[in-house]
Design a protein that fits this description.
Elements (H helix, E strand, L loop, with lengths): L1 H18 L4 H8 L3 H8 L7 H11 L24 E3 L5 E7 L7 E8 L5 E3 L6 E9 L2 E5 L4 E3 L4 E5 L4 E5 L4 E9 L1
């Protein structure tokens, strides 16, 4: 599964980079990562973090999901154990893309698993990004980095994703559905 995901990510990065008319060096510069990392990812190698994929998506002007998701079938069932998981490099935060935004829509749906410890701090995403979170299990502080809000199971929160934001699990086994949309 990891090899398949790596190949899919590599193909998507190369496809989007080529469509944007960028060289590997220019993409690396814009994303703030090394040229070697971009080359390794494009060849299907490496294990990119959520932060690396967001940086590449932002540099390419595409949603993170376009670098991860497969072309959807008319009916899609993703078993929890089979969801393609991508971990954060800086915290115990794992995101599984459940549904990428189709070409004429601008939203992605994730299932996230977060453990207490280092909070998942995110830099601003593409301008106009709004995030919606529905907490499923555990408790967490979520939202704008300067003023996160306490959430309990079943709570819904909407906040600007184009400003610094945070997800700080307070309990083990915290899970949430995150919907990222660009307005």
């Amino acid at each position: 599964m990891v090899e398949q995901l790596g190949s899919r990510i590599g193909s998507a990065i190369k496809r989007e980079r080529t469509a944007a008319g960028l060289t590997v060096s220019e993409l690396a510069r814009r994303a703030g990562i090394s040229k070697a990392t971009v080359s390794q990812l494009e060849s299907g190698g490496g294990n990119p973090s959520v932060e690396t994929l967001w940086a590449l998506g932002d540099a390419l002007g595409v949603p993170f999901a376009r670098l991860v998701d497969e072309t959807p079938e008319p009916v899609t069932l993703i078993r929890a154990a089979d969801a393609p998981r991508i971990s954060s490099a800086n915290s115990s935060y794992v995101a599984a893309l459940l549904s990428a935004s189709p070409p004429n829509a601008r939203r992605d749906i994730y299932l996230v698993h977060v453990e207490p410890g280092s909070p998942k701090s995110s830099l601003p995403h593409t301008r106009g990004t709004v995030e919606h979170v529905i907490l499923m299990t555990g408790t967490a502080l979520v939202g704008p980095a300067a003023s996160p809000l306490a959430m309990s199971p079943g709570d819904y929160l909407c906040y600007p994703g184009d400003a610094p934001h945070i997800f700080d699990a307070q309990d083990e086994g915290t899970t949430a559905v995150l919907i990222s949309e660009i307005r």
